[in-house]
């Protein structure tokens, strides 16, 4: 099934040391490793097992070679700082491709390439790209090994940084490898930073702290279940388990098999009576998933436990309900803005065994970023490796600086994270960053209405004038950069899954922590106080008949007094503004939504269009 990289017809070609491994049950996998090594020509091939010993061996070597800086073991045990080059700091959407024979399968929101020509181009780039380096072979399971919703993958990479990061982010090891039987489906990931250490004439080329290549490709071949990533060492470009597999390839597998692969956090919510619910929530990148997943409720008696903070796989179970897992085993979280005040659980999670990337280094060998403390230290080494003082006028950490920690270090981790076959989902939330229009919380009245809420997820780039809609960045389901197929078809797939679930489908809500008042400040305190919204949602799920809602053209919002806001000191006007629905600005927004849907083409489902028309009719009647 996997397209085999061509092997140069050269008689002197020898299989690099370590490429052959005994006992690999899947012939295709064994062949693929050998062929990839023959194409890329590393000095050696090392099969990773994700063990502590391997972590220590690799991180020691990286410190010695200068690609990691060891943080002070007293302050931050077993933790490291990596600094990327300034041109390799985030996912690169314009270098991300979906390769399908029919461009319509990639849809209008993805960059498309014809698979054969892309393979030809990639083969040229990958040819001998690992010269002088080690090729790591990293087998992993997404989800508990052998679980009903879990999937298997193998990444080969010439980046030790990617290999050790992957060991934190996924269930890496022999257990995963042994589960790849002769006929087991698995996802192949080929990754090279594109910085060989030997020139074609055999002379040595010195390594650098962050090897990368100005030419970058993050290419997906859904039909082959393969990912080829070249030139970048950063995050979602290099940890192929994450956005490439779990979302882009994952969403195409999910479409074919009747499940969902989504950009969602997963949490367990327990009420004061001990009743537990499971909530999945989709927000675009950097819109609060990690924060909500680790929320510390301010409401007495309520408890939030973390299952996942970025990706959820959801699948109808034998009992007809929707079950979900977090396929990941680690957290790749945004550092800037994270502090003891905003997210104490995250701060605890990264106390030990953590790789920090592009944060600032303090004089005592610890890390710092904007928002960590009120006052910055007097002197730092910034993320570029330069001396920095508060007078420098630049940010000390890159805005997309991240921490990578094992999820088992999260003190609010729910036992449910270990559930072999996932947890039943009771509520789904869709949210964005909206300064205007979108209320704090709205209950949709049907699955199709919920799909419409997902399809219209958006964030405002700038605060708009009161009553008018500003420029919106549309990010349906928070999945704009991550749906591996046609966007309209993704919405149809959601409708189909809902149809199969019927009355057992979770209730769907729309939330917005980011609405602003006329003075430009947030109307809602957010963070731990979001527990109040979760409490109302829990009540709506467990007592749907209770009179705790007020109807609006958008859907049901909390009735007066139904949302516990005691002690928040919110004024009556603020409370009203939080749930205000202005028909004129919403009719304007509906026009923008129509333009957006039209831009996606004919696959936007009729049922989603019908939701837009029904919304317009309700707004006109209001
Ligand atoms: P990715 O890892 O990129 O997918 O992001 P994420 O959705 O996990 O985002 P994260 O939780 O890291 O939040 C990013 C930003 O949102 C930070 O600047 C937070 O401070 C801010 N944020 C999160 N929750 C709230 C909230 O309830 N209110 C406000 N005002 N800001 C919030
Ligand atoms: C995101 O951008 O949504 C992330 C970071 O979670 S990355 O893994 O780089 O995609
Ligand atoms: Mn994300």
From TrEMBL:
Note describing how the cofactor binds: Binds 1 Mn(2+) ion per subunit.
Domain Phosphoenolpyruvate carboxykinase C-terminal P-loop: residue ranges: 259-618
Assembly and interaction partners: Monomer.
Subcellular location(s) of the protein: Cytoplasm
GO cellular component, one term: cytosol
Protein name, per record: Phosphoenolpyruvate carboxykinase [GTP]
Annotated gene: pckG
Residue ranges occupied by any Phosphoenolpyruvate carboxykinase GTP-utilising N-terminal domain in the UniProt entry: 31-255
InterPro entries: PEP_carboxykin_GTP_CS, PEP_carboxykinase_C, PEP_carboxykinase_GTP, PEP_carboxykinase_GTP_C, PEP_carboxykinase_GTP_N, PEP_carboxykinase_N
Protein source organism: Curtobacterium luteum
Function: Catalyzes the conversion of oxaloacetate (OAA) to phosphoenolpyruvate (PEP), the rate-limiting step in the metabolic pathway that produces glucose from lactate and other precursors derived from the citric acid cycle.
Residues where Mn(2+) binds: 243, 263, 310
Pathway membership: Carbohydrate biosynthesis; gluconeogenesis
Keyword tags: Cytoplasm, Decarboxylase, Gluconeogenesis, GTP-binding, Kinase, Lyase, Manganese, Metal-binding, Nucleotide-binding, Pyruvate, Transferase
Active site: 287
Main location: cytoplasm
Family: Belongs to the phosphoenolpyruvate carboxykinase [GTP] family.
Cofactor: Mn(2+)
GO-annotated biological processes: cellular response to glucose stimulus; gluconeogenesis; glycerol biosynthetic process from pyruvate; oxaloacetate metabolic process; propionate catabolic process; response to lipid; response to starvation
């Amino acid at each position: 099934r996997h397209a085999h990289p061509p092997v140069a017809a050269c008689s002197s070609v020898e299989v690099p040391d370590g490429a052959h491994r005994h006992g690999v049950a899947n012939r295709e996998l064994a062949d693929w490793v050998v062929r990839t090594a023959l194409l890329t020509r590393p000095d050696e091939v090392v099969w990773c097992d994700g063990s502590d010993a391997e972590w220590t061996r690799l991180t020691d070597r990286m410190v010695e070679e200068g690609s990691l800086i060891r943080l002070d073991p007293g302050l931050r045990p077993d933790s490291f700082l990596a600094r990327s080059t300034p041109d390799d700091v985030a996912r690169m959407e314009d270098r991300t491709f979906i390769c399908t024979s029919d461009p319509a399968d990639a849809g209008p929101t993805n960059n498309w390439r014809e698979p054969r020509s892309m393979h030809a181009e990639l083969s040229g780039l990958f040819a001998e790209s690992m010269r002088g380096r080690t090729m790591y072979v990293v087998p992993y399971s997404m989800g508990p090994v052998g679980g009903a919703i879990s999937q298997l993958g193998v990444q080969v990479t010439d980046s030790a940084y990617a290999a050790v990061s992957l060991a934190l982010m996924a269930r890496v090891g022999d257990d995963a490898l042994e589960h790849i039987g002769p006929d087991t489906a698995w996802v192949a990931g080929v990754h090279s930073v594109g910085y060989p250490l030997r020139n074609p004439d055999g002379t040595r080329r010195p390594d650098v702290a962050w090897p990368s290549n100005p030419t970058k490709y993050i290419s997906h071949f859904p039909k082959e279940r393969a990912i080829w990533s070249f030139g970048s060492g950063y995050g979602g470009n290099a940890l192929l388990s994450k956005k490439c597999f779990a979302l882009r390839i994952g969403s195409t597998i999910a479409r074919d098999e009747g499940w969902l692969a989504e950009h969602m956090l997963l949490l367990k919510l327990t009420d004061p009576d001990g009743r537990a619910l499971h909530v999945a929530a989709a927000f675009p990148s950097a819109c609060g998933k990690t924060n909500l997943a680790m929320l510390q409720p301010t409401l007495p008696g309520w408890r939030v436990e973390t299952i996942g903070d970025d990706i959820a796989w959801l699948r109808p179970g034998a009992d007809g309900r929707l079950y979900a897992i977090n396929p990941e085993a680690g957290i790749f979280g945004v550092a800037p803005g994270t502090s003891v005040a905003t997210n104490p659980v995250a701060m605890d999670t990264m106390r030990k065994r953590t790789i920090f990337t592009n944060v600032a280094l303090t004089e005592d060998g610890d890390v710092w970023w904007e928002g960590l403390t009120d006052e910055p230290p007097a002197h730092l080494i910034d993320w570029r490796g330069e001396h920095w003082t508060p007078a420098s006028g630049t940010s000390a950490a890159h805005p997309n600086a991240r921490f990578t920690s094992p999820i088992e270090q999260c003190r609010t981790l729910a036992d449910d994270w270990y559930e072999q076959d996932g947890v039943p989902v009771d509520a789904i939330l869709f949210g964005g960053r909206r300064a205007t229009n979108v209320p704090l919380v709205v209950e949709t009245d049907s699955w199709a209405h919920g799909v419409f809420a997902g399809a219209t997820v958006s964030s405002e780039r700038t605060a708009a004038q009161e009553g008018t809609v500003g420029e919106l960045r549309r990010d349906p389901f928070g999945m704009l950069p991550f749906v591996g197929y046609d966007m309209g078809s993704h919405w149809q797939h959601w409708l189909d899954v809902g149809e199969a679930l019927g009355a057992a489908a979770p209730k769907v809500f729309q939330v917005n922590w980011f609405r602003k008042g006329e003075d430009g400040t947030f109307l809602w305190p957010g963070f731990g106080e979001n527990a109040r919204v979760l409490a109302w949602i829990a009540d709506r799920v467990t007592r749907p008949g209770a009179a705790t809602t007020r109807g609006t053209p958008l859907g049901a919002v909390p009735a007066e007094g139904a949302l516990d806001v005691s002690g928040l000191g919110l004024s009556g006007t603020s409370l009203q503004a939080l749930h205000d629905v202005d028909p004129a600005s919403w009719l304007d927004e509906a026009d923008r939504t129509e333009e957006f849907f039209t831009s996606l083409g004919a696959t936007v489902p009729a049922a989603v269009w019908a939701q837009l028309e029904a919304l317009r009719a309700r707004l006109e009647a209001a």
